[in-house]
Amino acid sequence: MSDSQAISAAVAKLYNTFPFPPDPLSDQLPPGYNWRWHWQAAYAFCTGRKPETSLIRILDAGCGTGSGTDYLIHLNPEAEVVAIDLSEKALAVAKERCERSGSWANHEPPVTFEAMPLQQASELPGEFDLINCVGVLHHLPDPIAGIKAIASKLAPGGLLHIFVYAELGRWEIRLMQEAIALLQGSERGNYPDGVKVGRALFDTLPEDNRLVQQEKRRWSMENHRDEAFADMYVHPQEIDYNIKTLFELIDAAGLQFVGFSNPQFWQLERLLGDNPELMARAQSLSDRDRFRTIELLDPSLTHYEFFLARPPLEITDWSDDEALLNAIPEISPCVDGWPGRTLFDYNYQIVNLSEAEFEFLELCATNQTQPTTVGELLEPVALTLDGVRSLQKRQIILLASP
Q1: Three-state DSSP class for 346?
Q2: Residue 321, number of CB atoms within 10 A of its CB
Q3: I want to staple 243 with a disulfide (CB 3.0 to 4.6 A). Which of 13, 26, 95, 292 is the partner?
Q4: R_g over Cα of the chain
Q5: How many CB atoms are located within 10 Å of the residue 317 CB?
Q6: Phi/psi at 257 (nearest 5 deg)?
Q7: pLDDT tens digits for 77-93?
């Protein structure tokens, strides 16, 4: 058995022992939304406009126990969904989850679950418009081979959403991982024993120990389940990234970097905005050097989440007034609390609408049955074009080309 095969076998053993994520099964549809798993919202975030169709194919590459798959099926009722994972036990839980929740039963296009390592995704038939790969690449023996495999299945104009670990914010985790492995000795690979050793360490170390404090502050709520604790502290394979190594991975995919899906973190203004001289110095930085500066100054980041695309992917910024006046607006499917002046936006942040914004959204709410342009909807309300642009940038409305 090659080293790569041995690593894959060890990872499969972990997830067959502790299927992950350990989210409880439910007889109800998944609550709320994650906009990154909603094709219309994700496409609008990446391009500025609503996609022309929702009749797409989606690949959940490394679905685990199907928590994300359940949302992908539920939030994209017109999409064909394929979910793959190397752990047969996790895959069985994923099937049961989607059957019990009702997302699968109410879904007319095909939904397929396949036991398959991500590296073999290139063998899947056809191409996909949206590929979701969360928490997988950093556990592969060769992440570059993995990202190339899924990139090869991305359709032109398609989106690939990725989540991988960041090294700076996981520093304490890596120390505990190594300590557990040393104390396990020959028992390394016995994952229940690793959990036992890890929990004993946290119970025994002094209260003011840095590792204990970080666990209590950041992770203890989710790590009360052994499945989550094992995934974090006794995983047999983990590669953590920094901006330099992250973009080496991205470059290897041969795809276009669209942007981070948590852009608020990557605004240098939040760290240096009070010092004009430092901000002026930062103007000469390349995008990647700016990203690196941000993660160095705020080393709390535990993961990267971002979108890649296969060109051509046209970006619309709606800076042209005539184009905006002729656009068709509608309320984003990923806002909560409508109708009301106070909403939760696509990131579940509270938004307080002005009277003019509220009146405009009231008109947008009827726009799906009888499409009307921005220009026509603005006639009876006191909202400006910049006000419409603000609603679009905050993902409160989606804009479609006429």
Answers
A1: coil
A2: 13
A3: 292
A4: 23
A5: 13
A6: -80, 115
A7: 999 999 999 999 999 99
